[in-house]
Amino acid sequence: MKGAILRKVTKDDIMLLYNWANDNEVRKNAFNSNYIDINVHKKWFEDKLNSERCDMFIYMYHSKPIGQVRVDYDEKDIGYIDYSVADGYRGYGHGKNIIHLVEREVAYKVVCLIALVKEDNIASKLVFEKNLYKKEAGIYIKTLSKKI
Asked: How far is residue 67's CA from residue 85's CA, in Å, rounded to a whole number?
């Protein structure tokens, strides 16, 4: 998608991610759908931002932040994806593009990407299917070729 890039999350993004995380649609599609307390978010954000086992990106579309994607890594070269698109930008192909872009960003780190998607989250299921993830036992998996 022309005009779209990922940029690394910075400490200045804390409230942007907090507000997106507490969006009604995002909470509905999260496995823990409870509202997130600001103090809990601050601790989580600092831990993730300082972790070597996590990459977080803001999805920019024509210089405007409209989504986020996070990849958490385990010890076996597997990355777990979590993403969201801001209200008002959903349904235009941004989810598919976010996943495509993050695959390129992290391909040198992982052999496989996994997404856990709630059964009733049809939009995310379609995003991963369009990006050629295979559904196995309720999760979406894609094997990547590591860059050398």
From this structure: 4
pLDDT tens digits, one per residue of 42-66: 999 999 999 999 999 999 999 999 9
Q: Provide CB contacts within 8 A for 61, sequence distance 6+.
A: 1, 3, 4, 67, 89, 94
Whether the per-residue pLDDT at 137 is higher than 60: the answer is yes
61 strand-pairing partners: 4, 64
Residue with tokens 């990106």: 57
* Total-model pTM: 0.92
Question: How much is the CA Rg of the chain, to the nearest whole Å?
Answer: 15
User: What integer pLDDT is reported at residue 146 of this predicted model?
Assistant: 59
Q: In what order do the strands lie in the sheet with 139-143?
A: 4-8, 54-61, 64-73, 78-85, 112-116, 139-143, 134-136
Instruction: For residues 6 and 105, give the distance between their C-alpha atoms in angstroms, rounded to a whole number.
Output: 9
